[in-house]
Amino acid sequence: MEPLLIPILILALVGAGVLLATRALGRRGLRPRPEAPAQPGLDPVELARAAAAKLNQEQHRRLYALIAQGQAMAAIKLYFEATGDGLRASRDAVGALAAHPQPFRPTVPQQAVAEDEEDTPQRFPYRYRAIASKGDVTREVSSNMLNDEIYGRIRTLAKSGDPEAAAAALTRHSDISMKQAREFIALLDD
User: What angle is formed at CA 26 by the lines to CA 24 and CA 29, rounded to 5 degrees?
Assistant: First the structure.
């Protein structure tokens, strides 16, 4: 019995030491890290949209080229210099832009947008066919008021999270109902 007592005591001491070490490490992992404070209510998609809005077309293009090449530090430096935001804000913005890519949207004065919406759609001498499909569902829109540029704007609206505006634009440039336009746009927003 005595020869087994010493190994059992050693085993109990090692077990107690492991238990204490895991509890200490567990508590250390629960503490918030000072270099990454929690920012409640900060939506990364909204952060990406706001960050993209601060860039001009050339800066936007260069930033995404750096992100695509895996040069995160250079992208953060470019954003920092272009916007004047702080270093941490630039890091967060570039991270959000990398995770949620944003198309370049030129800033258009509100008056120009209102004038564009009031214009009647131009009729082209040809019929443009736009086709969207998902799985075994396919929809087609054929109109002489559509072209590549207009359809590209409609797709951008749909993919950027504004399906109602995309559907409204599609109905303006074709002879389909709003319900049909919504069905067509639903196939585009992937």
Answer: 110
Q: How far apart are CA 103 and CA 23, in angstroms?
A: 47
Residues 165 and 134 placed together within one structural domain of the fold = yes
Structure tokens at 174: 């074709």
d(CA 120, CA 147): 15
Burial class (CB in 10 A: 0-12, 13-18, 19+), 19: exposed
Domain boundary among 52, 74, 99: 99
Query: Would you say residue 7 lies in a domain?
Result: no
| 180 closest CA partner among 166, 161, 162 | 166
Number of domains in the chain: 2
**CA dist., res. 20 & res. 93, Å (int):** 40
Query: Which residues constitute the domain of residue 91?
Result: 44-99
Pairwise pLDDT comparison (54 vs 6), residue with the higher score? 54
Tell me the CA end-to-end span of the chain in Å, nearest whole number. Answer: 72
Label residue 77 by pLDDT band (50, 70, 90).
Answer: very high
The 10s digit of each residue's pLDDT in 99-140 is: 988 888 877 555 554 445 545 677 778 788 888 888 888 888
| Pair 88, 115 in one domain | no
Is 168 within the bounds of a domain?
yes
Q: What is the pTM of this model?
A: 0.40
